[in-house]
């Protein structure tokens, strides 16, 4: 069966498993690399290294946001066009996505490097942390073109019906990173710069892998020079759908900065190191859900474009069930092994005590986050950008930022940790309301 046609004909549960499993494996390995990377930094550089990476993290989030603006937006539009049997148009979208990636990469890199120190100081880097944060960020930003291709265009690999290839891209990058990180930090004594260099080299290899696939591989879509010229309609359609994950990343960056400032005010650098660990563990626990979400996107997009609404609803319900199961398991792991997890990163007794309590509170609403992620992704997959933006932004801008500003004034440091679970529950409730209304409309169709 043709790869793209199977999206509209194969059994939903089998299809979702076949598309999600490679994405889950790839995402979990990638998140596992981030955890291992932090462990190497924590052990090889110390608490100051963990703090520096946490300070620089908002820049990395924005960098990834631009990659998602193009990659996720283009992938969703490609799925819809292939469902409508418009393959030539889908290839134009791929070519435009490549051009946009290169333009955004150049603009972002130049802007950040020009004002690097002021940006890091604004993000909360104090004099002892600034040299570490500067060295790490400069290397990461210079290597951003590789990330835009390897991460951004890899979404289109999955959208055209080849989840195994998309998984291979992620595994190559993450696996190489896990090997190079300890080599550069402990063997070559390159410190925090070695960690950044390992990341850039790994992303470079995955970028070459994706380009070769679209140029000479067995891809359904081909990267052709004639499609590099930007088309206003295509760019607008990419940005409309990609704006949701992009704004979510921007909001996440703002939230991280706010968290860092608030933690420095109410506790100190150990609290900033703690939130860095918590963020990585939270992402590790959520990566299976993001994998399911990525596997679901081409199935939903293709069948919605083809008018197969019963298949859309069935895929959505199965995905929500699987996501809830994974997020609940992640919750149990965090609550039971909290101290042991923090000890992996650093053996400072104060950090272990502070970080373990913070992690239990901060991630206590994990079981409902799976539903929220899948629900918001549904609207993105069917091209309803407005709904997707509202739901994606609800947790960060509408809920979390006001809570981080308010709760610490009432509860001190405890209020910082409580802000996230309250925002998680509220955004899941809002997603449920939107999704219930949408499913009623689909039933009428």
From TrEMBL:
Please name the InterPro entries in this protein's record.
Answer: MATE_fam (IPR002528), MATE_MepA-like (IPR045070), MATE_MepA_subfamily (IPR051327), MdtK-like (IPR048279)
Q: Where is the signal peptide?
A: none
Which GO MF term does the entry hold, naming one? xenobiotic transmembrane transporter activity
**Mode of membrane association:** Multi-pass membrane protein
| UniProt-annotated location(s) | Cell membrane
Q: Which UniProt keywords apply?
A: Antibiotic resistance, Cell membrane, Membrane, Transmembrane, Transmembrane helix, Transport
- Pfam families the record matches: MatE (PF01554)
Q: Which CDD domains match?
A: MATE_MepA_like
Q: Major place of localization? A: membrane
Superkingdom of the organism of origin: Bacteria
One GO process term, biological-process aspect: response to antibiotic
Gene Ontology cellular component terms for the protein in this record: plasma membrane
Transmembrane intervals? 15-36, 48-81, 93-116, 136-157, 169-190, 196-216, 237-259, 318-338, 358-379, 386-410, 416-436
PANTHER family, from UniProt?
Answer: MULTIDRUG EXPORT PROTEIN MEPA (PTHR43823:SF3), SPORULATION PROTEIN YKVU (PTHR43823)
What family classification does the UniProt entry report for this protein?
A: Belongs to the multi antimicrobial extrusion (MATE) (TC 2.A.66.1) family. MepA subfamily.
| Name of the molecule in the record | Multidrug export protein MepA
Q: Which organism is it from?
A: Pelosinus fermentans B4
Its organism's taxonomic lineage begins at:
Bacteria, Bacillati, Bacillota, Negativicutes, Selenomonadales
């Amino acid at each position: 069966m043709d790869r793209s046609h199977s999206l509209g004909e194969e059994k939903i549960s089998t299809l979702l498993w076949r598309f999600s499993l490679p994405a889950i494996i790839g995402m979990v390995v990638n998140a596992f690399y981030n955890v291992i990377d932090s462990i190497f930094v924590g052990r090889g550089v110390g608490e100051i290294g963990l703090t520096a990476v946490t300070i620089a993290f908002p820049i990395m989030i924005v960098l990834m946001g631009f990659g998602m603006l193009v990659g996720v937006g283009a992938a969703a539009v490609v799925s819809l066009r292939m469902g409508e049997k418009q393959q030539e148009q889908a290839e134009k979208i791929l070519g435009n996505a490549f051009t946009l990636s290169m333009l955004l990469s150049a603009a972002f890199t130049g802007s950040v490097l020009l004002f690097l120190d002021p940006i890091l100081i604004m993000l909360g880097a104090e004099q002892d942390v600034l040299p570490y944060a500067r060295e790490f960020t400069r290397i990461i930003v210079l290597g951003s073109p590789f990330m835009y291709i390897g991460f951004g265009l890899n979404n289109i690999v999955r959208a055209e019906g080849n989840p195994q290839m998309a998984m291979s891209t992620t595994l190559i990058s993450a696996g190489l990173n896990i090997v190079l990180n300890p080599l550069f930090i402990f063997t070559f004594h390159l410190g925090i710069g070695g960690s950044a260099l390992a990341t850039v080299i790994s992303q470079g290899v995955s970028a070459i892998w994706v380009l070769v696939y679209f140029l000479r591989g067995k891809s359904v879509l081909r990267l052709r020079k004639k499609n590099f010229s930007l088309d206003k309609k295509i760019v607008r359609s990419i940005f409309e759908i990609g704006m949701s994950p992009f704004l979510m990343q921007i909001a996440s960056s703002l939230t991280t900065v706010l968290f860092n400032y608030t933690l420095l005010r109410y506790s100190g650098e150990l609290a900033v190191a703690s939130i860095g660990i918590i963020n990585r563990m939270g992402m590790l626990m959520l990566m299976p859900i993001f994998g399911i979400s990525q596997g679901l996107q081409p199935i939903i997009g293709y069948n919605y474009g083809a008018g197969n609404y019963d298949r859309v609803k069935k895929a959505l319900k199965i995905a929500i069930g699987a996501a809830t199961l994974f997020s609940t398991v992640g919750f149990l792991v965090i609550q039971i092994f909290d101290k042991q997890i923090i000890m992996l990163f650093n053996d400072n007794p104060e950090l272990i005590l502070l970080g373990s309590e913070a992690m239990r509170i901060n991630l206590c609403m994990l079981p409902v986050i799976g539903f929220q992620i899948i629900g918001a992704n549904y609207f993105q997959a069917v091209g309803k950008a407005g709904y997707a933006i509202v739901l994606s932004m609800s947790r960060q801008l509408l809920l979390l930022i006001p809570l981080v500003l308010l709760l610490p004034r009432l509860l001190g440091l405890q209020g910082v940790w409580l802000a996230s679970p309250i925002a998680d529950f509220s955004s899941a409730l809002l997603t449920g309301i939107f999704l219930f209304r949408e499913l009623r409309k689909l039933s009428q169709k």
